[in-house]
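[Q] Does anyone have a clean structure-token version of this?
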Amino acid sequence: MQVKELGHVVLYVHNLERSRHFYGDVLGFRQLLLEGPFPAAAFSSGRAHHELLLIEVGEDAAEIPAGRRVGMYHIGLKIGDSDDELRAAVAELDRAGVELTGASDHTVTHSLYLHDPDGNELELFIDVPGVDWRENPELIAAPIKPLRL
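[A] Here you go.
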């Protein structure tokens, strides 16, 4: 067996409407119609039938533990191919009241970090033009530098 691609991510969320707004209106995922036996919403960038599924578990569900723990660290979402697109994302996030928690130059990507309404960390990134990690895989492990937009 060989995995061909990462298909989708499913997240439990406290409040489906709040998370729909964040992923749909703020991040620009397109919501797909979904009706089922429980409160949920599916989203796609257009690459697959759904790339993100949100399932509401209610406000009384346990929070994500802070600090180092086993489990998901973050989800990386490619938002374009240029630093101009990252600069535009910073402005849009600022207008939406979303706080950035970091920004890094990974040599192969330029990345912004933030949290969704339930505390899941997201990385919004662009692939750096002209950097060929396939030709030189060692670039993936290059030292992380502060991102200067």
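[Q] Thanks! Anything notable?
[A] The chain is about 15% helix and 30% strand.
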